[in-house]
Design brief:
The protein has 20 helices and six strands. The protein is an alpha+beta fold.
């Protein structure tokens, strides 16, 4: 699977896979990490290093693909009226992971495929034996239909089981089930009014029976006036996150029409809308208003740094990246963008190398980081390490020809046995690529 990495307006790092864009944004990713951690904890999954991945799409959907990733579409987030409904969805997906539904579902699909193939073969055999091709066709269809029915039956069972477990998680967290119910009803109403089928319904069949099951379930022992979770800060930030995601996935006109007010989250959405129109002076003016109101919110400085970069003010941009990282040293995208600025300015390469090596440790699957690290080594005249990084970049891009070119160059600069062994290991990975 070939992954393509790029920056859009230098505002966020995304990767595209099968037309799906996964967002790498410090503010959004850290917010959902803080929101989901208590859910994983009550599910006894907090030691599994599960991540919330945000997909940039107006589709209303959420799913899990394995035991370590929960995928939320921005369309689902932007259509959530409050946090309780969104927490309910995350709890539901967490229940799928806890009950190993994905692994079991894959096993069921494989079994159903085998049954369908067997029915197909038998149908063809009967058709050939009787010289009635129509019988073969019937056999093929019945085999496939039977397999699909078994898969759907398995899926429905999993959904009800995940609902029940999710409700227990909500109870443990002191969250009322009404938020989850109202969110599902909202999806049902949208389908009736606008006559559309959303992806969440396709992957999570929202039958009336299922909603009634959630409504009638025992969800008592709720902690009254719960103030533990979600925290007041998470609730306050939710509108900011929604506004930002809406602006990143809608046209400037749509954003300015919807977020036409003077509240902080409206100003935030407006700043992104003007940024996409390259009206950076307006964007920066709006961000400055937010910084004045909340001078310790690191993400406002980060956003301003990004606008300044796009405006061509790299020195000023660098100072605001520094301010955001000073408040929160764990801003990975900010460190990447700061490194990019310093490379352009050809300043402080040892620090750049240190930051990019940290990023490679956490995001070794992103080729652009390897390329930037190679550039930093090259400016620092460490040509062996530079070419080694370029090889890693080429491997991730599945570019065997380019990788071999950098391998030849790296060998010219190898001096020690350790370096020779490092190249031998990389060469082995390179040779495993298909032409």
């Amino acid at each position: 699977m070939k992954l393509i990495y790029f920056f859009i307006f230098q505002l966020f790092l995304v990767f595209q896979s099968y037309a799906e864009q996964i967002l790498y944004d410090d503010e959004v990713n850290n917010y959902f990490h803080n929101l989901s951690t208590p859910i994983f904890k009550v599910a006894n999954l907090d030691d599994r290093n599960i991540k919330i991945q945000i997909i940039l799409s107006n589709v209303i959907n959420a799913f899990v693909s394995d035991g370590s990733n929960v995928y939320l579409y921005t369309g689902l987030i932007c259509n959530s009226d409050d946090l309780d409904g969104l927490i309910g969805v995350i709890a539901h997906e967490t229940a799928h992971i806890k009950q190993s539904h994905i692994l079991k579902f894959k096993e069921e699909i494989n079994l159903s495929k085998k049954k369908a193939i067997f029915s197909t073969i038998m149908g063809l055999a009967i058709g050939l034996a009787t010289n009635e091709p129509g019988i073969a066709t019937i056999g093929v269809l019945s085999g496939v239909d039977r397999a699909n029915l078994e898969i759907l039956k398995h899926s429905r069972h999993n959904e009800y089981a995940a609902d029940r477990l999710a409700l227990k998680y909500l109870q443990d967290l002191g969250i009322k089930k009404e938020g989850m119910v109202s969110f599902f009803k909202k999806l049902e109403n949208k389908e009736r009014i606008f006559n559309f089928t959303n992806s969440y319904r396709l992957t999570h069949p929202l039958s009336r029976e299922r909603i009634k099951s959630i409504e009638s379930s025992a969800n008592d022992n709720i902690i009254k006036n719960n103030t533990r979770y979600p925290s007041k800060q998470l609730q306050n930030r939710f509108n900011l996150i929604k506004a930002k995601l809406f602006a990143l996935t809608h046209s400037p006109k749509e954003t300015l029409d919807i977020y036409n007010c003077n509240k902080d989250y409206c100003l935030y959405a407006q700043s992104f809308a003007y940024g996409s129109q390259k009206n950076y002076l307006k964007s920066i003016t709006l961000i400055d208003k937010l910084i004045e109101k909340e001078p310790n919110y690191e993400y406002f400085y980060l956003t301003k740094a990004q606008y300044l970069f796009e405006f061509g003010k790299i020195e000023e941009s660098t100072s605001y990246y520094e301010r955001s990282i000073k408040i929160n040293p764990g801003l990975y995208v900010a460190k990447y963008e700061l490194s990019n600025n310093l490379i352009l300015l050809k300043k402080d390469m040892m620090r750049v190398i240190s930051m990019l090596k940290e990023l490679v440790f956490h995001f070794k699957h992103i080729p652009e980081i390897w390329k930037k690290l190679g550039n930093a080594y090259y400016i620092n005249q460490n040509y062996f390490e530079a070419n080694k990084c370029y090889i890693e970049d080429a491997i991730l891009r599945n570019d065997k020809k380019l990788g071999k070119l950098f391998l030849v160059r790296a060998k010219k600069y190898q001096k020690t046995t350790e370096q020779k062994n490092e190249l031998a290991f990389i060469e082995k990975k390179l040779n495993e690529l298909k032409e």
